[in-house]
Amino acid sequence: MSNNNTIHVIDRTFDVLEMLATSSEPIRSTDIADRLGVSLQTINNLLRTLYQRGYVSQDSSRSYRLGPQCFYLGSFADRWQHTRNIIAPQLREMVKASGLTGFVGVIENDRLLSVAKISPENMTVTPPEQSWWEELHSTASGRLLLAFLPDKERAKIFARNSRKKITGSTIIDADKLDNICKKVAEAGYCQIRDESREGVSSLAIPLHDINGKVFAALALSGKNEKWCQIHTAEKLQLLKDAAAKMERN
């Protein structure tokens, strides 16, 4: 098999796993093939191998879902579990006080990794979905993390990655983003409106490690109607109070 074909098969395998991961219900092989625009035979071959290795399972209707081996690998990949447990009380307290969603993110593989997320509707702290994985440039957390990188490192990330125009307000130009990041670093916080989701705003500040280095972003986000009911200074104070407690721990 040629190298290009090998890469193509790997891409398809991850397409299948990611589809199953984001589905609330098991999916039939025919539906997987239709959604991916791939032949049923190709999908069945992939699923057969994944099933034998334990990465997918079947229910009574022979539809597919993620298998136990995914959990096994994921448990080793989640190196942020300890941090999540430490920051959970303060994150929950901040969400209760604001009625907004609380979020902690870091840069991983040039992308925005969601470490923890709590919403007013769900106060449970678990490994969150990675809805913002490709939005390092368009979220308050991602942009703040970029802002506190050395200029050369930030430039390398901009050069390596393409950026999606998610809404009409999303800024994707590297030079414009670089100028914004420099202003964010001076201000010590980042606020974004309608760039990641229409009708949603977010505000982020840095979290520092024991050596004073920025290692994560702490953010609040919410729909604009709710967002505008709380003054920016009040939201910043809630973030700063939570960050101080988290850093002490």
Explain this structure to me?
By secondary structure, this protein is of the alpha+beta class. The protein has two domains: 3-74, Arc Repressor Mutant, subunit A (Orthogonal Bundle), CATH 1.10.10; 78-248, Beta-Lactamase (2-Layer Sandwich). 49% of the residues lie in helices and 18% in strands. The protein has helices at 3-22, 29-36, 40-52, 68-77, 81-98, 140-147, 151-160, 174-187, 224-227, 232-248, and strands spanning 56-58, 64-66, 101-108, 111-118, 190-193, 200-208, 214-223. Strand 3 (101-108) and strand 4 form a beta hairpin. Helix 5 runs antiparallel to helix 10 (232-248) and helix 6 crosses helix 8 (174-187). The mean pLDDT is 91.
Roughly what is the average pLDDT, rounded to an integer?
91
Helices and strands: which structural class?
Answer: alpha+beta
Give the CATH level 1 class of the largest domain. Answer: Alpha Beta
Helical stretch tally: 10
Strand content: 15-25%
Reading the helices and strands in chain order gives HHHEEHHEEHHHEEEHH
Low-confidence stretches: none
> What is the CATH topology descriptor of the largest domain?
Beta-Lactamase
Which CATH architecture of the largest domain is right? 2-Layer Sandwich
Report the radius of gyration as a whole number of Å. 20 Å
Q: Give the overall shape, derived from the CA principal axes.
A: globular
Spatial arrangement of strands, main beta sheet? 4-3-7-6-5
Question: Cα distance, first to last residue?
Answer: 52 Å
* Count of DSSP strands: 7
